[in-house]
Structure formats: structure tokens, C-alpha cells
Amino acid sequence: MSGETEISGMPESLKDIKHIVLVLSGKGGVGKSSVTTQTALTLCLKGFRVGVLDIDLTGPSLPRMFGMEKRQVYQDSKGWKPVSVPSTSGGELKLMSLGFLLDDRGNSIVWRGPKKSAMIKQFIKDVDWGELDYLIIDTPPGTSDEHISIAEELRWAAPDGAIIVTTPQGVATADVRKEINFCRKVNFEVLGVVENMSGFICPYCAECTDIFSKGGGYQLATEFDVPFLGNIPIDPTFVEMIEKQTGYDKSLVDLYKDSGLYVIFSQIMEKVLSGEAGKVAIAEHPANSA
Ligand SMILES: Nc1ncnc2c1ncn2[C@@H]1O[C@H](COP(=O)(O)OP(=O)(O)OP(=O)(O)O)[C@@H](O)[C@H]1O
Ligand code: SF4
């Protein structure tokens, strides 16, 4: 865990951060950014100080999800200042994304160095987060240069681990398996698998219908001997909430607080917070079953 002991080589920017959690997915479009967003919202609503770092350099979608598009970030002697997401409930929520540093044509306007690995290094070293309970890192899909760079940059920070996101269909592909194997290679503990888009919540009667097969995420977690964290249904109210944020007045944090997704996600986060995810993995490991 970062922040507890003085480790030589640890970037100054991470020294006051207690936990670092990465969100990974084997394929694009499975809801990784939505899971990152909901992880951050849930932790914030539980009173934690949360930072979100978007290292999806080719498609940074978090500024739009948090209703923070077109915000300017500025730099002082301590580094880049993340954008604060307003909320009247819970703790603090800060956001840093390459999206804040691109012009309208998608060109980097202020970040030094065009290479992805250089950008990720600067994202890790040059952002002035201050004190945080949790830093959630949204990554691009698959196992790309960005993943290798982030693993390299976090080697001193001992992240808590990674949440793997899949869909009921996604688990059938090799991509998600590759993602778990990648975590093992770089020593990221797999905190668990989340099955997103698992059933559909009807906007009229709030019933959940399994429009695709269900249970693949659980089977995958069992196969790899990692914890299963839960199912998140397709809920059209989530997209509505994102669209409802008017300017910077109505915060996603406050909108999310009263949603059914917050109830579902709280159960998922309870497993991560209580360490149940890790404990289950240890208890179920074949080496520990006497
Ligand atoms: N459980 C859900 N209920 C409703 N809509 C969802 C859900 N999960 C994701 N979505 C919607 O699906 C779309 C894709 O989700 P998201 O951007 O989170 O995927 P991603 O895996 O991060 O994609 P990318 O590969 O582009 O980074 C978004 O419009 C998002 O709002
Ligand atoms: S689940 Fe029921 S209420 Fe919802 S659309 Fe279908 S039939 Fe209508």
C-alpha cells in the first residue's frame, strides 16, 4: 500500500495516497470507464477522498462522464492540479485526464513529450493529488504500451491491485484471460472480476431481465481462482444521469447517490473494502485447502 512507509524511488506525488486500484478490461466498450466512474462515486459517497486518473490516452472519456469536459487544468510549482468534481455528499473527488490537455482536434496542448510512456510517467509524477484515500486508475483496453508503462511507474507504489471488467459475452474471449495473466506477470493482485451489462433493468418496471447469458464472470473468476465481485445490469438511468449533469451545477455524485446502481455497486465495493476479495483468494487457493 502506498503512503504508509517511505519507499525509496516512490514518486513524491504518490506518497500521500493510501490505496491505488487499477481498472482493466480485455476488450474495449465493456464498461471499464463506467466501472471506474462508479467505483470512484461509491467510494466518495462513503466519505473517502478519491482521485481518478484516466490513462486511456487514445480515448479519454472520463471528463465527459463526470460532466467536466472543457475544464482547464493548471500547473504550479507542486505539479498539475486535478479537477475537483463538485458534490454536496460524501468525501472528495478529483479527476485528471489527458482529455483536459487536448485541443479540439485531439492534439496535446501542454503536456511535454509525445510518447505514451513519457506521458504516463508525467501523469504519475507530475500531478499534485494531495492526500487521498484511493487513487483509481482507468486504463485503455487490452494489454498495451500504456499497461507496461503504468506497471513500470507503479513498481515502487505497491498498488492494492486491479479490478477486471468483463461482459457476459466478453468472458468467452481470450482477451480477458490475457488481462488476468498480465496482472500475474507484473504482480498486480487481481482484486476481482466484475460482470458488467449483466441483465437489463427495465426503465418502466425496474425488473431485471437476462437478455444475454449470465454467470460467465463468476465462472471465469472460479477458473482463475480470483474473487468474483458481482454483476452490474445495463441500466439506462446511468446514461441519463451522465446526460443530466447540467454544466457544473448538478454533480454526478449527488445524482448517483439516489440510484439503484449505487446500491449494487456498494455491495461490490464492500467486498473490496473489507478485503474479502483478497481473503477469499487466499482461502480458496489450492495450496491452503488442507
Ligand atoms: N451498466 C451499464 N448500464 C448502462 N450503460 C452502460 C453500462 N456500462 C456501460 N454503459 C455505457 O456503455 C458505453 C461504453 O461504456 P464505457 O465507456 O464505460 O466502456 P469502456 O470499456 O471504458 O470503453 P473504451 O474501450 O472506449 O474505453 C458508455 O456509453 C456507457 O455509458
Ligand atoms: S420488462 Fe415489463 S414493463 Fe419493462 S418493458 Fe418489458 S414488458 Fe414492459
Automatic annotation (TrEMBL):
GO molecular function, one term: metal ion binding
Binding site for ATP: 26-33
GO biological process, one term: iron-sulfur cluster assembly
Record keywords: 4Fe-4S, ATP-binding, Cytoplasm, Iron, Iron-sulfur, Metal-binding, Nucleotide-binding
Compartments it resides in: Cytoplasm
GO cellular component: cytosol
Residue sites binding [4Fe-4S] cluster per the record: 202, 205
One Pfam family matching this protein: ParA
Keyword hit for 4Fe-4S: yes
Job of this protein: Component of the cytosolic iron-sulfur (Fe/S) protein assembly (CIA) machinery. Required for maturation of extramitochondrial Fe-S proteins. The NBP35-CFD1 heterotetramer forms a Fe-S scaffold complex, mediating the de novo assembly of an Fe-S cluster and its transfer to target apoproteins. Required for biogenesis and export of both ribosomal subunits, which may reflect a role in assembly of the Fe/S clusters in RLI1, a protein which performs rRNA processing and ribosome export.
UniProt family annotation: Belongs to the Mrp/NBP35 ATP-binding proteins family. NUBP2/CFD1 subfamily.
Name under which the protein is recorded: WGS project CCBQ000000000 data, contig 00102
Lineage: Eukaryota, Fungi, Dikarya, Ascomycota, Saccharomycotina
